[in-house]
Amino acid sequence: MHTLVVAEKPSVARDIARVLGARDRGESCLVGGGYVVTWALGHLVTLKEPEELDEKYKRWRAQDLPILPERMETKVIKKTRSQFLAVKKLMNDKETKDIVCATDSGREGELIFRYIYEQAGCSKPVSRLWISSMTDEAIRAGFDALRPASDYDALYRSARCRADADWLIGMNATRAYTLRYGVLLSIGRVQTPTLSMLVRRRREIDAFVPQTYYTVRADFGAYKGVYVDSKGEKRIDSGETATAIAARVSGQEGRVERADREKKTERPPLLYDLTTLQREANAQLGFTAKKTLATAQKLYEQHKLLTYPRTDSRYLSRDMLGKVKKTLESYDGELAPLGEAALGYGVRLTPRVFDDAKLTDHHAIIPTGKRAEGLALTPDERRLYEMVARRLAAVFYPDHCYDALKIVTRVGEDAFLSTGRSVTQEGWKAVYRDAQKARRKKDDEEQALPPLSVGDARTCRSAKAVEEQTKPPREHNDASLLSEMEHAGRQIEDEELREQMKDCALGTPATRAAIIERLIEVGYVKRTGRNLVATPKGVQLIEAVPPEIASPETTGRWERELSEIARGKDSEMRFRQGIVRLATFLVQQAGSAPDVPFEKEERRGRRRAGPRDLGIACPVCGQGKIAENSKSFYCTRFREGCKFTIWKNELQRMGGPEMTEKLLRLCVQKGDVRGSTGVIHYSKGRVSFTPAMPDGSH
Questions:
Q1: In the annotation, is 152 catalytic?
Q2: Superfamily designation of domain 274-394
Q3: Each residue of 428-477: pLDDT tens digit?
Q4: Which helix (H) or strand (E) holds 635?
Q5: Are the C-beta atoms of 562 and 506 separated by less than 8 Å?
């Protein structure tokens, strides 16, 4: 008898198998030490499409909407069916006494396993592996602290509710509005309100009318100042007035009227959750949200340098104090002095770092303690790792302290304001000294002011009137949009409602990057440099749909309820009833939606390159030829019913390479193609992939 361990990805399965001593190769698994370790390749099971529930839904017809199944049915994904069958066989094997769910420790990972377990018809006892790091030590500790799967039932119910809600809203709204406008319109419970944020910003920018104003800048030799009126306002409406002020103060003697000094303190920043890491990596490194998540995931899974990245917590548990000290001690290379300094300042149980009450499913993202020197990291991986490592050190540095300086110099009847700061303790900002220099703003607040006292005389060497214009709001980028998504209720004008919505968000840290990329994929948003800009189609969609689906506040409420369900504090039945009402409402509203002039999709299609005939006989029907388009290889007789199709990304879902023409030709000729990462198997027009073993064998 043995224990079956089900991981989410082959790479994770190999790491777990190595720690458990399961080194022998089995069929889609690794065996040894009383364990069999297999993998799910991500999603093996998903919700059925409408036409799989009832053939009448193959045709999109308004009279068939809304589609509201009494029970949401699941299906095995065709492309990975062979792996599902392998996992199902292992689950129901008479030698399997129990199962360990080792999918990612989060809502999505829980759903992946439960779908497979239910679809396999398995009833064997299940334990849950819940870890935040992929180091060998963390895996061992996780297996020493397995918990019953029932402890995570509430998390599963939340995940199931989220999947059902996305299906009900997406399927019904997409069909209803596509039928209304004759253009394929993708509508989603989270993606549409996210789009509305970008459209709102687009409208603000389009409606913005720049206003000209003037300022007067004076040079007092050792420092500079800007004219302020009796109310402290810097802007002057008239250019003539500004020119007159500059003329009458130039060359005149002034006196310091005020010399204020106020002590200020900036506490160290909190540790990173995923959204904060994505925002700062976008601002500092230019990474998109998707790139940050992918890079952090690789640092977690492959290099074992970071803890679990898909977290929404910025705190650690109190029992991690010793681990944090060891991690700081492990810093090497350029990071070593930072770790030493943090330890020197004292690593203590401060509530800004260690707070059990503010933990969620996972703690904040921190380094694991594994040394980074000598690892084959890409430049991007190293930069992101160093961001996280610097943050862990910074939280234990002293406060950054400075004196905020405010000088008012009066020249005759005119007053000039000068502001600056004098740093008294660099504190945690020493960790970011180089970055601060690179990003330092060049404005009045950054100038170093000389020691000045009230009554000191200073000559205005020169003054000039400067014409300026008000600036429109900035386009959103990944950082600003992530912030908006994280605080969906922040823009509400009603103060009471805004307070109720303060904990609402759009999506989760793990899904926000995918939502942004989905908006780009369907043509609602485009990237312009680092900016995210709503396209005309995106603007038109928000004009077409009612605020009930476009409102970030509505979806923010749903997300809050999903979080409550995950904590066992809310009813999934009530949540589902609300989603059903919304889906029904959206279908009804589509019939009377306003006339919006969407561009027909066919015009875009004509510009695309056509398919390419590879000159290879179809291995399935024998009559057609294999053709290639941007996404797949297929038979030219597909209209006559030939089913031969190989998607270019098909093997990537199994941990393999992208399918190319060269690989396809080799597969057709040889059957199996071996490479450094594993073996591509080909038979009768179908491909699959077996990853290489840790020792490089197949």
A1: no
A2: Topoisomerase I, domain 4 (1.10.290.10)
A3: 999 998 665 545 544 444 688 898 999 999 999 999 999 999 999 999 99
A4: strand 632-635
A5: no
Q: Which residue has the higher pLDDT, 697 or 606?
A: 697
Do the Cβ atoms of 26 and 57 come closer than 8 Å? no
Q: What is the pLDDT of residue 697?
A: 53
- 61-75, 115-129, 357-371: the lowest-pLDDT one: 357-371
Q: Which backbone phi and psi does 246 adopt, to 5 degrees? A: -60, -40
Distance (Å, whole) CA 260 – CA 8: 60
How confident is residue 653, by pLDDT bands cut at 50, 70 and 90? Answer: low
**Please, what is the Cα angle at 634 between 633 and 638, to 5 degrees?**
165
Rounded to whole angstroms, the Cα distance separating 553 from 416 reads 44
DSSP class per residue in 162-198 = HHHHHHHHHHHHHHHHHHHHTS-----TTHHHHHHHH
317-342 average pLDDT score = 94
DSSP category for residue 397: S
**CATH code for the domain defined by 212-267+408-469:** 2.70.20.10
Strands (E), 426-536: 457-459, 462-469, 476-477, 525-528, 531-534
CATH 2.70.20.10 residue ranges of the chain are: 212-267+408-469
- Rounded mean pLDDT, 143-162: 95
Q: What is the mean pLDDT of residues 638-647?
A: 84
Query: Which residue reads 């997300």 in tokens?
Result: 559
Calpha distance 59→156 (Å, rounded): 33
Could you tell me the CA-to-CA distances from 154 to 111, 119, 151, 567, 652 in Å, in that order?
A: 11, 19, 8, 6, 32
User: Hunting for tokens 């300094």 — which residue is that?
Assistant: 341
Is the preceding peptide bond at 66 cis, omega within 30 degrees of 0?
yes
Alpha helices in 446-544 (DSSP H): 478-486, 495-500, 512-521, 536-544
Fold for the domain defined by 2-145? Rossmann fold (3.40.50)
696's tokens: 């490089």
Would you tell me how many other CB atoms lie within 10 Å of the CB of residue 472? 14
pLDDT of residue 502 exceeding 80, the answer is no
Q: How far apart are CA 316 and CA 271, in angstroms?
A: 9
Amino acid letter, 442: K
Q: What's domain 162-207+475-602's superfamily in CATH?
A: Topoisomerase I, domain 2 (1.10.460.10)
Name residue 625's beta-bridge partners: 617
173 touches 545 (CB < 8 A): yes
Location of structure tokens 């004196």 = 403
Mean pLDDT taken over the chain: 89
Of the residues 308, 402, 432, 524, only one is catalytic, namely: 308
